[in-house]
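Structure, all two chains, one model.
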Amino acid sequence: MILFAIETWLLPSPYDILRETWEIRDRIFENLRSTFTISIFGLMSGLVLGVGIATVLYLIPFLQRIFYPFILISQNIPLIALAPLLVMWFGFGVGPKITIVMLICFFPIVVSTLDGFTQTDPTLQTYLKMAGASRWQRFIKLEWPSALPSFFSGLKLSATYSVMGAVISEWLGSQKGLGVLLTLSSKSFRTDRVFVAITFIVILSICFFIIISWIERFILHWKQNP
Amino acid sequence: MHLSVQNISFAYGTTTIMKNLSLEVTDGQFVSIIAPSGSGKSTLFYLIGGLLQPQSGQILLESQSIVGKRGQVSYMPQSPSLLPWRTVQQNVQIAYEIRKKKPALSEIHQLLERAGLAEVAHHYPHQLSGGMQQRVAFIRTLAEDKPILCLDEPFGALDALTRTKMQNWLQLILKEEKRTVLFITHSIEEAILLSDRIYVCHASPLQVSHVFHVSIPMNERQKKHQATGWRELTQKIEEALI
């Protein structure tokens, strides 16, 4: 069916996109795997870095006062400017791409986890202090579980950013990936393939989000039961 | 076990909260403190619990100073303060974990059973009523196994019926688990029902104004106003408070 006589190269129909998906399925799978690898490793390292930074900054308030502004500044450096630098320094391998994703992902995790730590119930704090709990015991048994809901909010945000970060990193020089498929298709006016790439980027983001939501529901199951 | 609070004074900035406050709690006694709301009763517990330090005076437990030392007494706040991600059993277990002692499950089960909580051992706090949550918090306080229990208006947030039930329950539990208790309340009736001795305090700054010994036999106290000497004692305490 043709509506408003829009050319296929301008806006392909869903049927065209589906047909194209089927035709280049092997290529999509290969590109998807590459983007998935960069996203997941970037997200994981961002997670470790984010939780690590949040923990250190929370437990040592003096460091938080010094470094928190720098972390904020780091988020204002345009990724488009930072990425070529990383490529110049570390080459075209997977490493710099994962680093880019990590730099995007760690920030929401730091902010949300720190926020979670500071929102610990003061009555529970008082109880544990009076009971003689050590600083570390209070952190492990009270502050960390209290921060989990906030941490998961940050993680879900990071997960969606991770795919976007992986795509941007692939633009800078890569042979594989949904980002590469996107640029190549766009340059050759294969709008249908651009849509195919976009669709799979969205699907990958949603998958990450859903998986993290499942993990969250499993870990925070005490919040579910009425 | 002997707790002796000797002439302690404390101020938040320039506001004096308590001045030369002294009280004694001896082994196996149930001692209550009645004072107006917002008079700094909880601050007294923070001082005994080592969370705050008095500007002057001494707090001795078995003749040893416990000023600034945490973990020397068990503390139960007004709100149940249960960890929402832990089940009833796990919440009691934390008392052992803090002491780095391996949780004795049989011991915990025994405590829960005695408190009528065995059936809800694997429930989460939000699945329990307010009264049940306070029972769990009390059992956790017992499990801490400290020489003295500091209970800060534990039934203050409960409705009248639940409160009466909890008072009877506490009496029963304490009959079996002989403990030394320092109890903060603003209910005269509650204090007479449970205590051996009652300290009546004035506010701003918090100071002991009167001490009453409750000589009404335990088995008579359930009758409350019908018990011999109840009305007279209530009247005396009321007068002391005004």
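The CA atoms of residues 37 and 195 of chain A lie 21 Å apart.
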